[in-house]
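Quick one: structure for this chain?
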Amino acid sequence: MIRKKITIFITQLVFTTNIFATIISCAESGSPTNDVRPEQFYPDTEGIIDITDIIDGEAAHSCGSSGSCPSGQTCCPDNRCYNLTNDPSNCGQCGNSCSPKGNMCIAGNCSCNGASPCTRAGDICCTSGGCLDPSYDPMNCGGCGIKCQDGEACVGGRCGGSCEGVGCPPISHGTSECRDGICVIASCEEGWADGDGNFSNGCECQVNIEDKGGADCNSAFNLGQLHDTEPGESITVEGFCSLLAPEDWYRFEAIDDPDTSCDNFHVDIRFLSNPSRAYVFDVRQANCSTGPLVCENDTQYIMAVDSRQPEGGGSFWGECPCSATPEANKNLCTDNSSPFFVVVRLAEGANPPGCEPYRLEISNGKYNYSP
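Got it. Here's what it folds into:
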């Protein structure tokens, strides 16, 4: 009889071990997976580890009445042992769940929307806004999603308060100040910017200083010359505008190289990337202050003569074909060289661009005109 019981126990244990090995080695696709860890299974009251001891795809050791756990684990009220540094259902303390599903437990702190954990004192994680301080955030005043009325300040987690005489908390990578009773971002550190207008997360965007345009007309970043000789020339710039730095200025000179039969002069300015369609640009020709405004609030600009198009009355515009001296049915090959100034800015009423930069291509002679 004793020999029979021993045989049954060994059979059950071997059978169960095979089940666990199958779960651990392959997912449905046949790829290795570590979703279930064998060291986390705990025996039931029968003293046998079997498939019924898996709880929601995870498992843990039982503390038992002694309350003892393996090194690095803590006995929680459900009488099971957990590693509080990486368990998303017991992160930092028993029962602290990193919801919604998908957030991780990193060194005892829950990640925020799949990103880094909130580490500043007083911060909470909101689905919209990420890590923020509900004491001063008018979009999440006192808790996630609690919005103050337009013009209302959020002070101490309550709408309608004023920061006058109270002051404003420090912000990430910048400075804050109380303005008209509302806490605002006063400045950002070099290399950082505010991409969402949210006071609570401060200057959250790291920007590339090297590619940043000038702040105004007089300090426009000089991109040099762009010649139209085939296949033409182009340059791509990246930049980032915010409420504190709303404009990027660039200047370049489009060169119309000498032609005798077809003028390839074709200036083209366009966005290659315009996050949230938040950006527009203006273009001035000749100079940035009094030169003609040839483009305003747009996302593409073209000035081209590399075509021949009817104007009516038997005349044509364009210089392809063209001639160096007067010739029937041809316009003269003229020199259209000119300086241009481009100012990129946030469109009025546009949604904040976030931290993604715009990419702007400026070219001459690269594209062919088509009506």
